[in-house]
Structure formats: C-alpha cells, structure tokens
Design a protein that fits this description.
With about 80 residues, the protein is mainly α. It has one helix and no strands. The longest helix is centred in the middle third of the chain and has 73 residues.
C-alpha cells in the first residue's frame, strides 16, 4: 500500500467562494460587453441617420422654396383677382 499523506489545506469553501467570484466577474464582463455592443449599434444607426439627413438637406431646401414660391404666387394671384374685380 502506498502511504500518501492527505493534503492538510483542503479549504473547499474558500475554493468555492473564489470560483463564485470568478464566475460573477465573468458575468459582469459579459454584461458589459453586451451593453457596449448595444451602444455601438445605437451610435452606428444614429450616424446613418445623420448621413441620410445630410444628403437630404439640399432637397428639403429646394422643396421648401418651391412650396413658399407657390404660396406667394397663389397669394399674389388672389390679391390681383381681388383688386381686379
């Protein structure tokens, strides 16, 4: 028979606590990673929206100017009609 001495420092509770702390830390890191990924996706979507708005801005000015011109033309025509009759 082999006579091997049993290890004296088998503190299982301390090892379990260390493992629990490591798992908790891993869970925190995973949650932080997911949070940062969601924030990155949100910022990317916002950047796309701003780029789209930047591309459409000249067309908005053109359409607003055309609408204002049509309103002024209509008001002028109504005024002329009012004075003409």
């Amino acid at each position: 028979m082999v006579d091997t001495p049993a290890p004296v420092n088998l503190d299982f509770e301390e090892q379990r606590a260390r493992i629990r702390r490591a798992l908790d830390e891993a869970d925190k890191l995973a949650a932080e990673r997911l949070k940062l990924g969601a924030e990155r996706d949100k910022l990317a979507a916002e950047a796309l929206k701003l780029e789209r708005d930047r591309m459409l801005a000249p067309w908005q000015i053109v359409m607003s100017s055309m609408a204002a011109g049509a309103a002024l033309f209509g008001a002028g025509a109504a005024f002329i009609k009012l004075l003409g009759s």
